[in-house]
Please model this.
Amino acid sequence: MFKNTFRFQLFALSLLLVSSILGAARIAYSATGQFIANNTPPFVRTAPKIGPADPSQTIEITVWLNVHNRQQLDSLAQDLYDPSSPLYRAWLTLSQIAAIYGPTAQEANAVKEFLSAHNLSIVLADPNNFFFRARGTIAEISAAFHIQMSNFEVHGQVVRANTSDPYIDGAAAAFVHLVSGLSNQHSEIVPVQRSAPSTSGSS
Model:
């Protein structure tokens, strides 16, 4: 019971974090698919662009599916940590969460087929259908989501990021909430390498 409670705490916190950082990742519809709006790091607008990301580099991304009854779930997640709420710490089990809010198997299968069709390997499939973790080269991921990936200088470090919101076509489009991992802003990044001043000709 303690294990399920702890896992739900992490899950609820992740839902709140995702909503606050990406503004609930509003979806913008188009003729044959949709953009996942607010899925581009803000620094892309102002940070100096160093150059394109290495297309042969292999990275992992996480594709999060739309939950059902999202407003109700967001409200519940906040109530769980509000001491004034009657639902304060009234934990649900993961199976209860999945039954009420989880994406369906059919929705998850559509997203899985989208990833496989674009040569992305499934690294981890959430048993409750909330997300898929996938691996591919930057070239493959860029092609799958119709984006460009570039390197930027952010506070003296090289940070990779997509330069526009990802676009998803086909049946999976309606089921994707956001795509994380396109940027490595919050993972391991490297300092910008600058050439040392020339000392030739000095005495």
Residues 2-187 form one domain. Helices lie at 2-22, 70-79, 94-101, 105-117, 138-145. The radius of gyration is 20 Å. The chain has one domain: 2-187.
